[in-house]
Amino acid sequence: MSSLCNYSHPELQITDGLIRHDTGRLFPYNPEFYNTATGLYGPGTIYCWYMLLVSVLISWAFCLADEDGPKKPGLSNDLLGALAYPVFAATDLVVQSMRILGMEKRALAIFCLRNPAVDLDLFGPFNTTQLDLNHIPPDTVILGQRVVDITGPLTICYSATPFLLILIVGFMIDADYARNWKPKPSARWVVNVAYGYISLMLTVFHFSLGDIGTSFFIAFYEAMLPVMLTFIYLFTAFIGLTFLTGIIMLFWSMIEKNYKDAVEALKVLGGCIFFAGMLVVPSMLMVHRDRSTTIPDLGIKVSEKGSVGHLDCWCCDIDLYGR
Questions:
Q1: Which residue windows are transmembrane per the record (predicted)?
Q2: What pLDDT, on a 0 to 100 scale, did the predictor assign at position 311?
Q3: How far is CA 311 from CA 38, 184, 241, 249, 316, in A?
Q4: Which residues on neighbouring strands pair with residue 65, listed in sequence order?
């Protein structure tokens, strides 16, 4: 069963006579691994769910204050939609995990498909003999299909927990700047229940894998991935905006012949170039090398009909919620 990890590295295997497909990063020569994947966790659906999360954060941050002073965001359609999706995914995750009970090395298969760039020598010796992708054992295909099905809801659950945790921590902050922000009890209750349910389902899932050590690595990598990518992308955007501001300051100061401000603008540009070279570029190269993404590999492109359909439906819902 551990050979599934070998099959997910097709560049090292025998691919004579096979056609490389555009979809599927892990199994580009063997689309049968994606036959049972559902579009519910395709890129179109996930992108629109991200829009809902951003909508919730913006509406909660900039909601109008009540007559008694503090802002009191409450239940809304976008909040319920943003929570319903990961709650459904958590339930689906446990259901999918029941389908692989008894399969050997199932935890390792999940880990290596979600983290294909990680060196697996820590987990034991692997067969380095080239495998023929024209003749994959049926039991390996079945395991691969079920693991691919699991990666969809697993990714959604671990993407949702940091978002919910931010809201819950915000509920508990009693600092001066947070006292004017008091979400209504109904909204707090729904967020807490959703976070508790998702955490419970994740716990059941990890214990069902039968390998606590590998399960810990799955949890660690999945929990860190959305946080790391969010930090990298936000920091990159911050550096980009700062660099653009520095260019505008430089041109404006040159037009005004204010050389003191021009020197300050050059310092800003130099700082941006330094941080871009030291942090942004290496981080982006690492993300590209490790193929790090919060979008599960289900062999579905965002341009496909089903994925676009999900995208349109969710965007229409967002438009209706806004009205």
A1: 44-65, 155-173, 193-219, 231-253, 265-287
A2: 47
A3: 14, 30, 29, 39, 9
A4: 71
Name the CA radius of gyration of the chain, rounded: 23
Q: In Å, how far are 5, 32, 142, 149 from 101, measured between CA atoms?
A: 19, 22, 13, 14
Beta bridge mates, 71: 65, 181
Quick one: how many helices (H) and strands (E) in the chain? 10, 0
How far apart are alpha carbons 167 and 194 in whole angstroms? 12
Number of domains within the chain: 1
pLDDT value of residue 318:
46
Range of the structural domain that residue 217 is part of:
3-322
- Taking 50 as the pLDDT cut, the residues of the chain under it are 1-2, 305, 308-309, 311-312, 316-323
Neighbouring C-beta atoms of residue 214, cutoff 10 Å: 21
pLDDT at 88: 95
pLDDT digit string, tens, across residues 166-175? 888 877 776 5
Determine the Cα–Cα distance for residues 158 and 138; give it in Å rounded to an integer: 30
Average pLDDT along the chain: 82
Binning the chain into helix, strand and coil, the percentages to the nearest 5 are 70, 0, 30
Crossing angle between the packed helical segments 305-322 and 77-98, to the nearest 10 degrees: 150
